[in-house]
Amino acid sequence: MPKFEKHIFVCANQREPGHPRGSCDPTGEASLQKLFKKKLAEHGIRGDVVRANKSGCLEQCEHGPTVVVYPDAVWYGFVDESDVNEIIESHIIGNRPVARLVLPDSCLNSATCAHKPRKQP
Fold first, then answer.
1. In terms of DSSP bridges, do strands 67-70 and 74-76 run parallel, antiparallel, or are they unpaired?
2. Could you report the per-residue pLDDT of 3-43, keeping only the tens digit for each?
3. If we measure between CA atoms, which residue out of 107, 99, 97 comes closest to residue 71?
4. Which residues contact residue 98 at a Cβ distance below 8 angstroms, ignoring those fewer than 6 apart?
5. pLDDT at residue 15, as a whole number
6. Cβ atoms of residues 57 and 14 within 8 Å
7. In 1-121, which ranges are continuous DSSP H helix?
8. What are phi and psi of 51, to 5 degrees?
9. In what order do the strands lie in the sheet with 6-11?
10. Are 21 and 62 in contact (CB under 8 A)?
């Protein structure tokens, strides 16, 4: 089998309600990942061409729900169900990442990202 053209990882990590880092999938239903799969199929994109998998924690909790598309290494933050079609049509089909959702490199794995809660002195 040839490699996937694109691989979408959707964080499905759960934490208890009120956790300071948040939770990408508070219901545990992986609804965002399931919607990606459904919408890809509706666009006629087979699962052996573009794969949408749920993942464990992607360590971008303050930006959640988080989605990353490989091999492009484009990280999306604050993704909700209303964004799925736009990501598929613009990025997956059109090869144009959705700029308003892209997490800047300066926020990835950074202790100083503006989205991270400040530690109290």
1. antiparallel
2. 899 999 999 998 888 887 778 888 889 999 999 999 999 99
3. 97
4. 76, 83, 86, 87, 90, 91
5. 85
6. no
7. 31-42, 84-86
8. -110, 135
9. 50-55, 6-11, 67-70, 74-76
10. yes
Question: Side chain identity at 120, as an amino acid letter?
Answer: Q
- Residue 83 in tokens: 């964004």
Return the C-alpha torsion angle 89, 95, 99, 100, nearest 10.
20
Q: Which two tokens stand for residue 100?
A: 């308003």
Structural tokens at position 102: 């892209």
- Return the closest-CA partner of residue 8 out of 83, 61, 110, 100: 83
Residue type, 96: R
Strands 67-70 and 6-11, how do they pair? antiparallel
- Of the candidates 80, 68, 56, the one whose C-alpha atom is nearest the C-alpha of residue 107 is 68
